[in-house]
Design goal:
Length: about 350
């Protein structure tokens, strides 16, 4: 393992952005074959054919999870087996060889261990873990690539939204959709994200933190908040868009639902009409990067709905506080969600 001397980073001013670290994990697999034993190597650029399937046809997907310092000083990950399972589902959808769960977990653990000096102090951020699976072999013609690469790298990150839990402002997209029924919206395909860059950038230029997408069929039901799942609360009932194959089955989403139900809240996984969302008592979004982020206002056309008078909603705060306390081992983890790295 590398020297654990802390890098020269101002942890307090760190944002959610890329930072080169020390080591990475990589493995290769021929179409129809088995994965080679993964190896750790110094972080470096990749050599790839211009005809690589991922470059020409977007045959690739990724995952995102975090390692962070816990209250007892250990480094822990949150439910990494759920990310392994989701990557397997994505691989099947995109015609790529599945990465076995044991291999996935071993890869992320080793990558965190060999970059442990980049894990921020507790409460100062996290080490974002990026597993990447792609068709790296050369192919001409829309077909699965002849060879695949699975790799894992990491980067220390600060909060996804500036201001932490402070309520953010969002804008509903009237012109763009994230995914359509029958497409790849339910997996973390790389092609799902580039089309969102233009509407997201436009929203941010107008002062919004992110965009909200509606469904592509009725242009009426809330789907996702950029790269996070959406929740709203009305009369004590929590609603979130149901999983119908067009939105990502978020690990944080799943965890928030379980925490809320264990606390006695009614949680409905359903079609969430945008008008219903705008009339809610509080709204928030949830994801690995965003954690649980309070939504202070939503603009839809000429209408602006505000929630909580600029304050974080009470249920949002309860869910945020319990989730982060579990992730940092500040309270007992009765569900076995946290996994020690060392």
């Amino acid at each position: 393992m590398l020297d654990n001397d802390s890098p020269a980073i101002d942890w307090d001013s760190m944002i959610f952005s890329y930072q080169k670290t020390d080591r990475m994990y990589i493995s290769h697999c021929k179409e129809g074959g088995d994965w080679s034993p993964g190896v750790m190597q110094d972080f470096q650029d990749l050599s790839m054919s211009p005809a690589a399937g991922v470059l020409n046809y977007g045959q690739g997907l990724f995952e995102g999870l975090k390692a962070q310092r816990a209250a007892d000083g250990s480094i822990v990950m949150f439910r990494p087996e759920r990310n392994a399972s989701r990557m397997q589902d994505g691989a099947k959808r995109l015609g790529m060889p599945v990465v076995p769960e044991e291999m996935f977990l071993d890869a992320v653990r080793k990558t965190v261990l060999e970059n442990s000096r980049w894990v921020p102090p507790m409460g100062k951020g996290a080490l974002y873990i990026r597993p990447l699976l792609m068709g790296s072999g050369a192919i001409l013609g829309v077909a699965p690539a002849p060879e695949y690469t699975f790799l894992v790298y990491v980067s220390p990150v600060g909060p996804y939204f500036k201001g932490g839990l402070r309520p953010i402002s969002l804008k509903v997209s009237d012109d763009f959709h994230r995914a359509a029924p029958g497409g790849s919206g339910g997996v973390k395909a790389i092609g799902n994200y580039a089309p969102g860059m233009v509407p997201s950038k436009a929203a941010k230029s107008e002062g919004f933190a992110e965009i909200i997408y509606l469904d592509a069929v009725h242009h009426r039901y809330v789907e996702e908040v950029g790269a996070a799942n959406f929740f709203c609360v009305k009369d004590g009932v929590i609603s979130t868009p149901e999983l119908t194959g067009t939105i990502l089955p978020g690990v944080t989403r799943e965890s928030v639902i379980e925490i809320a139900r264990d606390r006695g809240y009614e949680v409905r996984e359903e079609k969430v009409d945008v008008d219903y969302a705008l009339s809610a008592d509080e709204c928030f979004c949830a994801g690995t990067a965003a954690v649980v982020s309070s939504i202070g206002s939503i603009k839809h056309g000429d209408r602006v709905a505000s929630f909580g008078d600029g304050e974080v909603g009470p249920i949002t705060r309860i869910l945020h506080d319990e989730l982060t306390a579990i992730q940092q081992k500040r309270i007992p983890d009765e569900r076995g969600w946290t996994v020690a790295v060392e």
